């Protein structure tokens, strides 16, 4: 069985090891060799590609108002979209960029792009090559300029600031209610088991949505104080969201470079009858000890990226475990385990509910795209109640998802709601269809559950996936009769508890 995976991803697929050209071995505490040079990263360790030019941010990354974390593993990537989409007025950055522009020996600036974008190989499509597969955007096509003209007025900016402030107030209220549900309400049996589980799922979903927005904020330990809340739904890891979500998913949405497209790849490699129990057990292991051990590792190759997170995220993981132990002390461990399973699976499907990742699209070149138009067309708004300010929490922040993708720098879901009328108006001006929002349960959850729980065990590959057991009933039987696959799955569960699979 391992030979099948090796043909698709190569021998490094199993443990997520990076290819040789992006490994960073022998680094000191700050990721450097003690002489101010990044070891193991090659001559372009501080080079970033923006709009056809190369910039050396070895100095700027540490004085960047948004923090250095967004630069930590983004070297040798095309971060043009980060400059244009993550700043309210990117034209003001031109003098700064001119200061840090540099020259290189390569004939083509794109030659510096790391083939695998300094990301684990197994989360990228087979045969991925960043120089070829990373999308490019044409920022002069007018959509974003027209939208920013509407949003950057004094009245609109004040409205967005008020929306952000209101979002913070609601954040504190939800946090307080979640603590009440987890501890005194459980001890006193204030709610019946089914309502307690439902409240757990709802508050964890809301808090994860809040954490999601904080992951987009400046990494200064102030604006992003609640980013660790993303972890509370047992699936995500805010320690990697600044790169995997903010820098890879949002910049390269719905293209081969979008790592979020592969978020379910591991699950569908499991035989169908083992899929739910094995995956649930692995996620429990990651929650219970895996992340804590990972944060405590002294020889972590990602240490420069995780250094700050060891403070806040470890505390969040300890708190999450305290909820489990409290439930056990109250004699209601079975209640906690039920809410864990429901919350975990609900969160898994919410991750992909905001995009049509399950749709197989024709191959195309993603060149000179209009950022605003492309984001509107490739993000989905979802709803539960139809009340935007409520749904933004019930959908983990995805109720106003198109505005979030077009304007990823905004600090809150309420700010996106406030900005949506201007976005709709701009779409109308440019003839862009505004599709209706989709019902989260009926239109997204149920179809996704059926697809991912019943799809044949397979290895994603181009042009079509490799079915592990083959097609039909015979394939269903054969995929369950491969002992090496079961051994691997059980090994993955063990690695979840030890932190090795994270």
TrEMBL record:
Record's compositionally biased regions (Basic and acidic residues): 14-41
Source organism per UniProt: Prorocentrum cordatum
Keywords: Membrane, Transmembrane, Transmembrane helix
Protein name in UniProt: Cytochrome b5 heme-binding domain-containing protein
Transmembrane domains' residue ranges: 165-187
Region (Disordered): 14-44
Secretion signal, residue range per the UniProt entry: none
Residue stretches making up the Cytochrome b5 heme-binding domain: 49-100
Pfam families documented for this protein: Cyt-b5
């Amino acid at each position: 069985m391992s030979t099948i995976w090796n043909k698709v991803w190569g021998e490094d697929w199993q443990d997520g090891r990076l290819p040789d050209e992006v490994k960073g071995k022998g680094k000191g505490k700050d990721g450097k060799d003690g002489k101010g040079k990044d070891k193991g990263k090659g001559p372009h360790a501080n080079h970033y590609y923006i709009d056809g030019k190369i910039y050396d941010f070895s100095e700027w990354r540490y004085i960047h108002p948004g923090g250095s974390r967004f630069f930590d593993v983004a070297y040798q990537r095309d971060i043009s979209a980060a400059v244009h989409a993550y700043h309210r007025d990117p034209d003001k950055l031109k003098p700064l960029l001119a200061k840090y522009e540099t020259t290189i020996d390569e004939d083509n600036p794109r030659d510096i792009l790391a083939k695998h974008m300094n990301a684990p190989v197994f989360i990228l499509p087979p045969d991925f090559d960043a120089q070829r597969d990373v999308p490019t955007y044409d920022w002069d096509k007018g959509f974003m300029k027209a939208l920013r003209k509407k949003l950057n007025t004094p009245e609109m900016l004040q409205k967005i600031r008020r929306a952000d402030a209101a979002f913070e107030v609601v954040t504190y209220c939800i946090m307080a209610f979640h603590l009440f549900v987890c501890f005194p309400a459980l001890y006193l049996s204030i709610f019946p088991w089914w309502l307690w589980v439902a409240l757990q799922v709802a508050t964890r979903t809301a808090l994860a949505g809040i954490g999601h927005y904080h992951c987009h904020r400046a990494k200064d330990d102030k604006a992003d104080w609640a980013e660790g809340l993303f972890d509370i739904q047992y699936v995500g890891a805010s320690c990697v969201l600044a790169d995997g979500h903010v820098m890879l998913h949002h910049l390269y949405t719905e293209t081969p470079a979008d790592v979020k497209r592969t978020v379910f790849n591991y699950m569908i490699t499991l035989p169908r009858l083992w899929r739910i129990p094995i995956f649930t057990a692995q996620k429990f292991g990651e929650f219970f000890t895996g992340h804590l051990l990972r944060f405590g590792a002294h020889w972590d190759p990602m240490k420069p990226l995780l250094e700050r997170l060891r403070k806040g995220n470890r505390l969040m993981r300890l708190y999450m475990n305290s909820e489990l132990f409290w439930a056990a002390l109250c004699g209601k461990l079975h209640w906690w385990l039920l809410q864990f399973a429901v919350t975990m699976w609900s969160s898994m499907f919410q991750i992909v509910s905001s995009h049509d990742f399950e749709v197989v699209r024709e191959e195309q070149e993603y060149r000179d795209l209009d950022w605003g138009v492309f984001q509107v067309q490739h993000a989905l708004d979802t709803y539960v109640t139809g009340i935007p300010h409520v749904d933004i929490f019930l959908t983990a922040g995805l109720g106003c998802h198109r505005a979030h993708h077009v304007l990823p720098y905004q600090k809150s879901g309420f700010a996106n709601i406030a900005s949506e009328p201007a976005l709709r108006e701009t779409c109308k001006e440019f003839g862009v269809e505004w599709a209706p929002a989709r019902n989260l349960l009926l239109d997204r959850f149920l179809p996704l559950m059926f697809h991912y729980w019943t799809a044949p065990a397979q290895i994603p590959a181009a042009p079509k996936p490799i079915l592990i057991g083959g097609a039909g009933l015979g394939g269903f039987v054969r995929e369950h009769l491969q002992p090496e696959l079961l051994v691997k799955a059980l090994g993955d569960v063990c690695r979840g508890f030890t932190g090795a699979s994270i």
